Amino acid sequence: MSLFGHDVLLIGVMAILAGCGLIYEYLLSHYAGRVLGSVESAIYAMIGTMIVAMGIGAFLARWFKDPFTAFAWLESLIALLGMSSILIIASIIALTYTLPHTLSSLYNLPPDSLLDGRPLQQLQEFARFLPYIFGLILGILIGMEIPLIARIRQQVYGRFLENNAGTIYGADYIGAGVGAAIWVMIMLALPIMQAAAWTALFNIVAGLIFLWRYHPYVRFARLLLVCHILLLGVFTVILLNGTAWMKDLSNVLYKDKVIYSESTKYQHVVITERLSRTQATPINDLFLNGRLQFSSVDEQIYHTMLVYPAMLASNRHDKVLIIGGGDGLALRDVLKWPVQNATLIDLDGQLLSLFGLQGQAFEARPEITSKLVQLNQNALNSSRAEVIVADAFLEVESMLDRGEQFDTIIIDLPDPNHPDLNKLYSDYFYNHVRQLLAPDGALAIQSTSPYHAKSAFISIAKTVKQAGFEHVEQYQQNIPSFGQWGWTIATRTGQSASARIASAEHLPVASNWVSKKYLLSSFAFPNRFFDNNKDIEVNRLGSGVLYDYYRQAWQTEDELYKN
Fold first, then answer.
1. Would you tell me which of 8, 14, 100, 154 could form a disulfide with 115, CB atoms 3.0–4.6 Å apart?
2. Identical topology for domains 3-248 and 295-562
3. At what angle do helices 130-143 and 3-36 cross, to 10 degrees?
């Protein structure tokens, strides 16, 4: 082979491996975000960990005297760890969560007695940080690639190469760029284990190409060939079974029986089911990215408190806008009122399809959808409902351009637990929403827990006020599945929402749960609850203030429970 041929092969292999390395980094970051809950922090921490580890690996590469043999073995290890590390992490996490039950059964403890001592909590906490440990190991191995292949290239040429490092790093950067593009365009849409397996296949193929061309320089070449063949077998097994195994392992983390578990383009959706002696039908809970969104046993309380105050405070009910609420439950309660048209905007078409929206290009399990449609009373397909699958941030701007206006607006988004959601809780977004609201209308916003995340709760109200609403109030109620929960309600002009509710003679739409007196009582808060209001900041677009308040609150809460 000519020197040019050697260069094409070595630089090509380096570019492929750089792309694989970057995808492994993203895969572990993505999974760490799911496991640890704080997505942004987990991603940044993982990337930082792996960059430092690659630096360590570059230093350690000098210990290997035979770069050909070291590089061949290195690719085998990276491929094996790359496609199996997430599965190993999930298995260990699942083991730590099932261990208390196993020990309770082993020692024949009563069913209501569960071992949850400090050692078991520490074991679970350690398991949750395993992504960083595997990231460190994988980063060290990836960091060895550039120094080793640079030495191989120099030995092939038989002389010192002045631009050797520049050439190798150039291939590395370009390969990483291609890897990033593949991640965004292809890998994000795949189940995480399939993405890991396909990435590892490129590592295996690159290793086989290297072994084929340079086997005379590689010790134990035959053994390495057998290892690569075995790795192809592992790849096949993980590709075919990895996703199912991950589902089974993830399901261990939920207390109740998991009847549905799928990842959409935007979130991981889990539905659980349990039987209760006090309920005639099974109880279903919805989790998005591991966080409870509703429980069928008490969701009526939450959705009544979200919908009724805003509807009662609005002068008319002809046109209603719901932002979020892809489960159709808020829409169900809105349609109990004399509404001519209710528009719902949600980003996740797959979630909407799961909850019964017809005409979507997604397959949902009929038996699951049937349960959910019964819960939301098929609201998503009502003749009075219009469902728009879009980013609400952009769709609201389009509505303003079209001159649309609504009598009531209800925002039923998940908690601000991800940076991507932060913009939908910003002063910029609320200002656009204000312009969509009729002057005599009312806006209601799901506003997280005033008890567990007080600063985040108050920040939402201050942000709405900053957006130009004349009257901004907050109210709260206890939801058994969530604990104390809160909402923000605002009006553009005239009386405040609570004053409008107080002046109403009766509820135009009967409710089994709320009364006028009950609604007004929810506006009461503990003494001095708002005393430090002035210290809490407005969530401006791009600031991330609300996300930080929310993350800090729940991290503190977790630490309190652990102690």
1. 100
2. no
3. 170
Is 327 marked as binding a ligand? Answer: yes
On whether 333 is known to bind a ligand per the annotation, the reply is: no
Q: Which of 172, 407, 412, 415 is catalytic?
A: 412
CATH topology of domain 295-562: Rossmann fold (3.40.50)
Say if residue 6 carries a ligand binding annotation: no
User: Is 412 considered catalytic here?
Assistant: yes
| 419 marked ligand binding residue | yes
Measured CA to CA, the distance from residue 73 to residue 77 in angstroms comes to 6
Q: What is the 3-state secondary structure (H, E, C) of 295-354?
A: ECCCHHHHHHHHHHHHHHHCCCCCEEEEEECCCCHHHHHHCCCCCCEEEEEECCHHHHHH
124 among annotated binding-site residues: no
Quick one: pLDDT band at residue 103, thresholds 50, 70, 90?
A: low
Q: What is the pLDDT of residues 487-539, one digit of tens each?
A: 999 999 999 999 999 998 888 888 888 888 999 999 999 988 988 888 899 99
Among residues 156, 126, 16, 155, the alpha carbon closest in space to that of 78 is found at 16
For the chain, how are helix, strand and coil distributed in percent, rounded to 5? 60, 15, 25
CB 438, CB 407: distance < 8 Å: yes
pLDDT band at 3 (very low <50, low <70, confident <90, very high): low
pLDDT tens-digit series, residues 418-430: 777 889 999 999 9
Q: Where are the domains of the chain?
A: 3-248, 257-291, 295-562
The verdict on whether residue 407 carries a ligand-binding annotation is no
Cα gap 268→306, rounded to integer Å: 24
- Please provide the CATH number assigned to the domain covering 3-248: 1.20.1250
Closest CA to 288 of 238, 350, 231, 232: 350
Burial of 244 (0-12, 13-18, 19+ CB in 10 A): exposed
